[in-house]
Predict the structure.
Amino acid sequence: MSASRADHAAARSPGAAASMRRLLVLIEDAVVSALPTVAPSGAAGFGVDRLAESMRYSLCTPGKRIRPLLLLAAAETVGAQAARLSRFAAGLEMIHAYSLIHDDLPAMDDDDLRRGFPTNHVIYGEGLAILAGDGLLSEAFVLMLEPVTDAAIQARVVHEIARASGREGMVGGQAADLMGEGRAPDPSLLRAIHARKTGALLRVSVQAGAMLGGSTPAQLAALCDFGERFGLAFQIADDIKDEVAPPQVTGKSAGGDQVAGKVTYPSLFGIDRSRELLLAELEAALQALRSLEGDTTLLEAIALEAVAPALANGVAED
Ligand code: IPE
Ligand code: IPE
Ligand code: MG
Ligand code: MG
Ligand code: MG
């Protein structure tokens, strides 16, 4: 998966494609080594082996790794070395993996396929799936609190990530998504749901990379703007893919949003208008990057690559 993504990017910018490939290798190393493989023995270890297997199952199945990629790319954009941030970045992927396990549960989206594999609860049962999500969220903070930079800056970054993941961000958005099922669609509510359930974690990924990388206030503002607009574009693309992309692309059963009665961009605007709105958010995201001095081709390539499967003849395929 990572090779073909990098190949797509290569058509636009060979340098960005090579950087993306290099960062994805760093991320994969950090992700697979993020969870300890040795469980306590005897009574203290009872149940832990199976829990750890369940956590590793969802964390290590191949995903796009876009949140850690954004973090490392933002750090490099402001002139920092990505390698020292790779375990921190893996913490973001752990929060994301937890959110996917819970998102797929029967009480939520009730999906049995994720990244082309059976969902966590299908294999491990609902109880262990809930706990695997809880475990990943908790251990994400263990990784993100390993010292990587000035302690006060790092504390602020972790604080921002906790807020973006919780009630004000992803979890709040997920609650709104659930409460919105079967409701009459409303454009401003839909935008707010998407900005929180998906946009918040993507925006904070960019923000974290910028802050940990030592950004100036002006760089931070531009990168947060990029992250916010791209975060919304990403979920519009996800909604479009749910309707138009085959399971080989999404790794999910097709049409799940319609079955669940979700309020999505296609359900409200149709596919063509949703693509226009996606392109408008993407353009706003790229515009935010243009105010930055220096090389932004890596972040541009990541953004274009991420939304390309949702666009039949859009900018990403030109
Ligand atoms: C899927 O996220 C859930 C959303 C927040 C839209 P991704 O599209 O990043 O999923 P993976 O990690 O690549 O599988
Ligand atoms: C998920 O949104 C957002 C999360 C916080 C996980 P979706 O429910 O649309 O994500 P998919 O389509 O299942 O990946
Ligand atoms: Mg959902
Ligand atoms: Mg879902
Ligand atoms: Mg979706």
